[in-house]
Structures are given as structure tokens and as C-alpha cells.
Design brief:
The radius of gyration is 16 Å and the shape is elongated. It contains four helices and no strands. It has one domain. Helices cover about 85% and strands about 0% of the residues. By secondary structure, it is an all-alpha fold.
Length: about 140
């Protein structure tokens, strides 16, 4: 029963994380680019972080638990194992997301570079959707 609750929490957190990035990319970013106003992105992020960061923490915590349950030998890199393959892909997506986030937070946002930040936002949104696709593939029997 605990595993089912954790899967549900993971899905809800993924909905918040991915949905927030889709709203930012499709709803707020175009206006920010049209008006050349990074404040639009900052205002969205300041309001979204209150729910987005806790969702990310839930995703990380449940994801670590799922690795322990479904692929305890993940770092043997046995790509023939269904869960290992999917969870390694998710770890690669996480590394890419963290890299983009650090670069945006330390370089682009302080220098108010909207256009490069827009590319980062779109990339993180795509990565977020890929997280969902890979998660569905792992639980749904495999697309990958």
C-alpha cells in the first residue's frame, strides 16, 4: 500500500512540476519575449516556486525510493533490465535539468539575459515532458 501511495504522490508532483513548466513556456514566456521583459518570468517563478520546489522535493525523494525498490543494482548499468534502463534515463534527464537550472540561476538570471533564459525554459519544459514519458514507459510496460 505504501508503494501505491508513493507512486500517486510522485504522479501528482510530476503533474505540478511539468504543468508549471508548460504554463511558463506556453503562457508567460511568449509575453515576456514580446515585451522583452524578464520580470514576467521572474513574477511567475516567484509565485510558482512555492508549489514547484516542494513538488520537486517529492519527485526526488520518491524517485530515490523507486530506485531502491525497482533497481537496487542500478549502477551495474544492466540496460537489459526494464526498470534500470528507465531509471538511468531519468537520472540523465535529472542531470540535464540540474545543469540548466544552475546555469540559469547563476549566470542568465543575474545578468537578465532573457533570450538565452527562454531557451533554458523551453529545454527544461521538454525535459519535464520527457520525464513523464519515461515514467509512463516504466510503469506502463515500456515504450523504451
Amino acid at each position: 500500500m505504501i508503494l501505491k501511495i508513493l507512486v500517486l504522490l510522485h504522479i501528482l508532483a510530476a503533474t505540478i512540476w511539468t504543468g508549471g513548466h508548460l504554463i511558463l513556456s506556453l503562457g508567460f514566456l511568449p509575453a515576456a519575449l514580446r515585451q522583452n521583459d524578464i520580470r514576467i518570468v521572474r513574477q511567475f517563478e516567484s509565485r510558482y516556486e512555492g508549489i514547484g520546489i516542494p513538488a520537486l522535493i517529492v519527485l526526488l525523494a520518491t524517485g530515490i525510493y523507486f530506485i531502491r525498490v525497482y533497481a537496487p543494482d542500478i549502477f551495474l548499468f544492466d540496460l537489459s533490465d526494464h526498470y534500470t534502463r528507465h531509471l538511468l534515463i531519468k537520472l540523465l534527464l535529472l542531470a540535464a535539468t540540474v545543469t540548466l537550472a544552475i546555469h540559469a540561476r547563476l549566470v542568465l538570471i543575474p545578468k537578465e539575459k532573457l533570450r538565452p533564459l527562454a531557451y533554458h525554459i523551453v529545454a527544461v519544459t521538454i525535459l519535464s515532458v520527457l520525464f513523464v514519458v519515461v515514467g509512463y514507459s516504466a510503469r506502463g510496460g515500456g515504450l523504451l
